[in-house]
Amino acid sequence: MTHEDRLVDAQVEDEEQAVEAALRPKELGEFIGQPKVREQLDLVLRAARARGGTADHVLLSGAPGLGKTTLSMIIAAEMGAPIRITSGPAIQHAGDLASILSSLQEGEVLFLDEIHRMSRPAEEMLYMAMEDFRVDVIVGKGPGATAIPLELPPFTLVGATTRAGLLPPPLRDRFGFTAHMEFYEPAELEQVVRRSAQLLEVHTDPEGAVEIAGRSRGTPRIANRLLRRVRDYAQVKADGVITRRIASAALEVYEVDERGLDRLDRAVLGSLLKLFGGGPVGLSTLAVAVGEERETVEEVAEPFLVREGLLARTPRGRVATPAAWAHLGLTPPQQTPSGGSGGPGQQGLFGG
Ligand SMILES: Nc1ncnc2c1ncn2[C@@H]1O[C@H](COP(=O)(O)OP(=O)(O)OP(=O)(O)O)[C@@H](O)[C@H]1O
């Protein structure tokens, strides 16, 4: 199973981009949740506008689908500035960055997604561009190479990263404002669902929105995606109105349970509980039992299970928490005096 196969994955799919664009809030007042980020950003932008200048560089960190691209567009809109969108992996040479920077207009917002994945020479060029609005373009090679300084118009860099800790400190320090985006509360996701339903002209009753929000893993992108699938179901199987019953029946078809776990998550948890007595069990052994690649279990399923407090990664292997037993409606085995579960899948038997 890959990221793309999953309804509850937070990565954006290609065909999803147009509909996402239609659902994006356009101004700060419309942006739901993240109260601290909104309040702080509002101050930064108001102050910049009052000075008649350009806003400070902004770093947004947080998991995929939490609204970093949306917020960068809002920053541009609130500043009345154009926006240029690119990403770290697209900038492999310093020259790529130089050509983007030299074509920016005064006050323009440059959104650099996945900024931690930029090449080293490009990153070093960015330091000077951010601080002095200047770059040195190197012409020629070897001992005859010369650096030609190029003045840039003032601009606002909005960098986005899933992990701010991956950024080298000199880059991190050059941002005037850093915001960490948290996962959304269910009540906030409910608002996201209600707002999107209105834009998509689908009728959702309050309970229907609650049901979708509760299964959206704290992520607006997933909430919007589940809403679209529930809308399909409501249109095909009912009168088009999303009620709690319709939402839960639709998401049962798509195998997304009431806590947002999908088939893969439940397969991992189910194996851990039923075959290995709740662990500890090694990652490789667990992956074989589920019939998936080790990386899929580790990178695709586990982060959410850990965040939900259903699974723990310990030095001795993966361990299910009491909440995992409760979620799958199973009873944990009696503890043996040695502290192990006594289940059939102990680390010693299967290695891993
Ligand atoms: N606070 C919010 N209020 C309403 N809708 C939101 C909010 N945040 C995100 N969304 C919606 O969720 C979708 C994903 O948001 P966005 O593309 O901005 O996420 P992202 O963090 O940039 O993701 P990635 O890191 O994968 O690029 C968009 O359709 C957007 O409309």
UniProtKB/TrEMBL annotation:
One of its GO terms (cellular component) is Holliday junction resolvase complex. Coiled coil: none annotated. GO terms for biological process: DNA recombination; DNA repair. Its EC number is 3.6.4.-. Residues 54-185 form the AAA+ ATPase domain. Residues 339-352 have a biased composition (Gly residues). Gene3D superfamilies: 1.10.8.60, P-loop containing nucleotide triphosphate hydrolases, Winged helix-like DNA-binding domain superfamily/Winged helix DNA-binding domain. It catalyses: ATP + H2O = ADP + phosphate + H(+). Residues 4-184 are annotated as: Large ATPase domain (RuvB-L). One of its GO terms (molecular function) is ATP hydrolysis activity. Residues 258-352 are annotated as: Head domain (RuvB-H). It holds the Pfam family AAA_lid_4. InterPro entries: AAA+_ATPase, AAA_lid_4, DNA_helicase_Holl-junc_RuvB, P-loop_NTPase, RuvB-like_N, RuvB_wg_C, WH-like_DNA-bd_sf, WH_DNA-bd_sf. DNA binds at R294, R313, R318. Belongs to the RuvB family. This is Holliday junction branch migration complex subunit RuvB. It comes from Streptomyces diacarni. The gene is ruvB.
